[in-house]
Design goal:
The protein is of the alpha/beta class. It folds into 2 domains: 74 residues, 60s Ribosomal Protein L30, Chain: A, CATH 3.30.1330.30; 162 residues, 3-Layer(aba) Sandwich (Alpha/beta knot), CATH 3.40.1280. The chain is built from 9 helices and 11 strands. A 7-stranded parallel beta sheet has the order 7-6-5-10-8-11-9, sandwiched between helices. Strands 1-4-2-3 form a 4-stranded mixed beta sheet. Strand 5, helix 5 and strand 6 form a beta-alpha-beta unit. Helix 1 runs parallel beside helix 2 and helix 5 runs parallel beside helix 9. The longest helix has 17 residues. The chain is globular and about 55 Å long. The N and C termini lie far apart (45 Å). The mean pLDDT is 90.
């Protein structure tokens, strides 16, 4: 039996309607809503003969586990996860794909924030280690505004071996480290590329760093030593978007 999960917020549900309508079981919206974007979602869902129900503020908060649900929640089938083999097969058929590798991140809040940014910039796949935080953590879904359920995700047993497979199909590998001397803005992100974000405390593992074609840093002019990993992830991914949009 397929497991059901909840996503919330206008943009994640619009994405689900557009790209994964078959996964949506039911949509709940705040009774007597006047939000035109929510009304558009309801109209589109009705046109697709989906089950749509109005709900109280209390019920929406209960099923979404947050007050910041924007007045709309959807129940969807949990997405299928890629393994190393199926991920490589999928990425091989995409022109200049973007992969985000989270190398041993521990904090589900940071993982959720990275998923949110990855979905915003349309990363083709997020990759995590099999032995780290469970994706079933409600914190990940909450912080990501449900986008962790809408983003292609691979769970692999060995990050290092997976990087080798990416190289075999033409990927450039770009890691991040505060010890690097290469400004993140000097790298070409327009080709097939994997961005690696290291763990919160230790950064990338040494074996992972050895696999990188580039290791970059983000210049910091203030008194802090480093940025939060999810902030760093956003900075680099939006530089990638900037470069690709200027082609």
């Amino acid at each position: 039996m397929t497991k059901k999960v909840f996503i919330y917020g206008i943009n994640p549900i619009l994405e689900a309607l557009k790209h994964h309508p078959q996964r949506i079981s039911q949509i709940y919206f705040l009774e007597k809503t006047n939000n035109p974007r929510i009304k558009n979602i309801i109209n589109e869902a009705n046109e697709k003969d989906m089950l749509v129900s109005n709900a109280s503020k209390e019920l929406l908060e209960e099923i979404s586990s947050t007050k910041k649900n924007q007045g709309i929640v959807a129940e969807i089938d949990q997405r299928n996860l890629f393994d190393s083999k199926t991920a490589i097969s999928y990425l091989s058929d995409i022109d200049d794909p973007i992969v985000l590798i989270l190398d041993d991140l521990d904090d589900p809040r940071n993982i959720g924030a990275c998923f949110r940014t990855a979905n915003a910039v349309k990363v083709d796949m997020v990759v995590l280690s099999k032995n780290r935080v469970s994706l079933e953590s409600p914190i990940i879904s909450k912080v990501s505004s449900g986008t962790s359920e809408l983003t292609n995700t691979a769970i692999v047993s060995n990050i290092s071996q997976f990087i080798d497979r990416l190289k075999d199909i033409g990927f450039w590998i770009c890691g991040t480290s505060g010890d690097s001397e290469a400004d993140f803005r000097t790298i070409d992100y327009t080709k097939s590329i994997a961005i690696i974000m290291g763990s919160e405390a230790k950064g990338m593992r040494r074996l992972t760093e050895k696999k990188c074609d580039h290791v970059v840093f983000i210049p910091i002019n203030g008194e802090v030593d480093s940025l939060n990993v999810s902030v760093s992830c956003g900075v680099i991914l939006y530089e990638l978007v900037r470069q690709r949009q200027s082609i």
